[in-house]
Amino acid sequence: MELTDDLKQIDELLIKQLNQIANNKVGYWDIRTEVNDGTSLEFTNQKSKEISSFEIINCGIRAFKNGGWGFSVLKDLKKESIKVGLQKAIKLARLSESLTKIKFNIVQNKPLIKNYKSSRKKNLADIDIDDKINLVKNHEKIASNYSPYIKNTHTIYMDGYSQNMFLNSFGSKIVQDLSFLRLFCMVYSNKNGVTQSSVNSVAGIGGYEIVETEKAAKLSKKTAKEAVELLNAKSPVGGKLTVIADSKLTGTIIHEAFGHACEADLVLNNESILEGMIGKKVASEDVSIIDNPSMGQGKQFGIPYELFGSYFVDDEGIPSQKTIIIENGILKNYLHNLETSSRMNVPPNGHGRASVSSERPQVRMGFTYLEPKDWSLEDIIEDTKEGILCKDFQYGYTAPTTGNFQFKCRFSYKIKDGEKKEIMRDVSLSGMILETLNKISAIGNKNTFNYSVGICGKGGQHVRVCDGAPYIRIDDVTIGGLN
Amino acid sequence: METSDIYSLSELCLKLVQNENSGIQCADIYFEKNNYINVEIEENSIKNNETGEDNGISIRVIDRNGSLGFAYSNKMDRSTIKKLCKVAIKMMKVATPDPDFKNLPVSFKNYPAVKGLFDRNLKYLEIEDSLNYVNQLINVCKDDEMAISQSGNFESNYSKTYIFNSNGLNVSKKETSCLIASNIIVKDKISKETSSGYERQIERSLSNLNAINVANLALEDAKRNLNRKKVRNMKVPIILTPKGTINLILKPIAASINAETFQYKRSFLVDKRGEFIGSEFLNIEDNGLIDGAAGSQVFDDEGVPCKNKKIIERGKFLKTGLLHNSYTAGKEGVESTGNATRNSYISIPSIGITNFIMKPGDIMVEDIIKDIPKGIIFNTTGDSPNISTGDFSGLILHGNLIINGEIKESLNETMIGINLKDLFQKIDAVSNEFKIYGAFQAPWVRIKSANIIGGVN
């Protein structure tokens, strides 16, 4: 693999010198460097708003001693700066060590020396900027012309190329070469003073082929159609209801309300409702939840590129892998980074991720999903006397210490006597996650299973994620509404 | 990077983009340099000490048709800068024309004097000197019987900003800020119920930070959220705490009077200028000139002087009550209000607040609660109102029941639903006390009534 000039600075001699600098002064150190460049094209109402290009380098150097971390962030990759940066990080780690009351060591892992490159059928750099512009213009045009009720369109195309290098005191040296792309479409509609909106996006790891799929081609039309349909939707009445949730909404609930509680850093900080629950029943026995950020999963969804939340190796040098979180209702594993796995005496499972090299890795999800079962969507609806079918989501959040969650879907349909009725507006769903996981009364089959892409925020850092789920039915959910 | 280097690089940039003979109307260069310290605590113990630097440059170029190109980098060598100029022009050439673009700001003769935005103690702060603040957080948690854990941090930042444009604008400033944040977890020994509370303080000067106070407030917040109960549906008066006021009044208004949102007709306040949109208790201003305040600035991120602007007076949304950058101002034919905001060098200027203030009233907090037979205190939610419709339907994350004028149990699984136009009209009391959270200043506010959806059938 051809390294960029900036990363070529980090040669064997420098690595040798870094080892000499650290020379047993600390228990662990790692260095992450990256070079990113990319393009962002943002259009509103068929006019360009921001057409930009960037080139950014980042470097974060971490050192650890007996429970204390030091972190030093640089903005250049000169050999001398990196050496000074490591010295600073060591000094800071020793300072932390002298103050921390929680003592532990980072358990040594087998060093990994490997280069990875994500596949791309059409190199982003080979695509002319005019073609990218035309793509966005075309989506804007489709959305704007969809209906006279469309008042506002917004399309963002973002692509990026990142080459990063990871070194640590165990002797790992990993280079990852990734290319990714995201196309985002938002449409506002207005009729008789009522404004509605819808949002959709397509994203993945790969090349320009990501925007040439059928799904991407339909993005703006789908979004415009939803925004217009919502104009005739009425506000639902709040109260306790049976909810059928589509795969997008279910996936988000699994990620937000449950997945975060499985992050071992929150467990150690007494901020998770799942503390002390390993081996215990936390959900009805049909429920199995997995996190698997490994590469190679695009095929099962019929896409010619990698899932947006996938990675080869996490930001602490641990390869991505399948982790079973819940198996048949029983909590099996938390998600770990190097620190939490060392402290909880389990092997790391590749969930130490940072948004950029200048941030510290936290415990993060990758591709989190609920395993499908055997209900068809028709059967779930037919079996529901009265309820609400909620689709898509706008946002959601959870109070970690209580498990009280709140989600807002984008639109919904009334279900009456086993039939899907008229469209309704967004509703909020609220509940206590551990109660809710026990109230799942139907889980859809493989045909109802799908994935969605997102950007997940935690502690000010944003990382690429995916979640997946079939349709499910939950009994007795609190639904908010203005009426 | 030396100041002289910044001037010579910027000069080079402006020369390059203007020499391109590409029909450039104007251009600006934004340069930013930051140094920071961050000390983090987890599990009520110091976990991480961090120091870092960040700097970068961005170039915005606009041609005579209003087409805009933008490029940025944090590599500060001459060859990268030359490349960046070329790329910005390339971007401009593929952008669409925009007849609404008028001009970038011209240079200003006078800038306001705002004191207390820079503290030498923060510029020269060593990480060892910041540990005292973090230890104060730790001790508050350690000394409390119910507190079982805390995460939190101390952060300080020293930044220098330079803005140059082809209209002769050439300004620079240095600023400091510091922050202390505490998230405390408490556990009721008998019921085993746990809960968390959060508090933070942002200041321009180190001496104003009060870590003990921040931790104590987080602790109180956490304890107030124990003893949770589900309630039935009801329609009752609501008291917004300052955090609640920020969530339901200040943030949604700030988003709705942003001229860009307004011009795209994405705001529920479109067509409401000059009208009464709230009760007489609703008084809002955006003031960038308060000495030492977190949101104060001498000039905005396009180099335009900041000012104090009245937005809503006694419920009336003023005709001049929008926040502008140079683009939206040019489009409307008015002067920029000095509200151009960039996330950092990586973004073109959007629009943001300076210090966004709801004016306090004249009665005590106790007095606005004491006459309520049954009501709700609303402190925090993770939801935000829909800006285009004004609808709000959200979960009360931290809130309590009020029974006969007294604050009682905290709420579980309780939601509130109201349209903001309705909420603004129903404000019937505002406290004389207020709190400052970063750029927001907010009092306690009473809403005559709102729908509560409870978790009990």
Mind explaining what this structure looks like?
- The complex is a heterodimer of chains A (483) and B (457).
- Chain A is an alpha+beta fold and 483 residues long.
- Chain A has two domains: 5-232, 2-Layer Sandwich (PmbA/TldD fold), CATH 3.30.2290.10; 239-480, no CATH class.
- Chain A has eleven helices and 22 strands.
- In chain A, strands 1, 2, 3, 4, 5, 6 and 7 form a seven-stranded mixed sheet that branches. A six-stranded mixed sheet of chain A has the order 11-10-9-14-21-20. A five-stranded mixed beta barrel of chain A has the order 8-15-16-18-22.
- In chain A, helix 2 (12-22) packs parallel to helix 3 and helix 4 (129-144) packs parallel to helix 6 (219-229).
- The longest helix of chain A has 21 residues, at 79-99.
- Chain A is globular.
- With 457 residues, chain B is α+β, with helices and mostly antiparallel strands.
- Chain B folds into two domains: 120-159 and 175-224, 2-Layer Sandwich (PmbA/TldD fold), CATH 3.30.2290.10; 228-457, no CATH class.
- In chain B, the strands form three sheets. In chain B, strands 7, 8, 9, 10, 11, 14, 15, 16, 17, 18, 19, 20 and 21 form a 13-stranded mixed sheet that branches. A six-stranded antiparallel sheet of chain B has the order 3-2-1-4-5-6.
- The radius of gyration of chain B is 24 Å and the shape is globular.
- The mean pLDDT of chain B is 94.
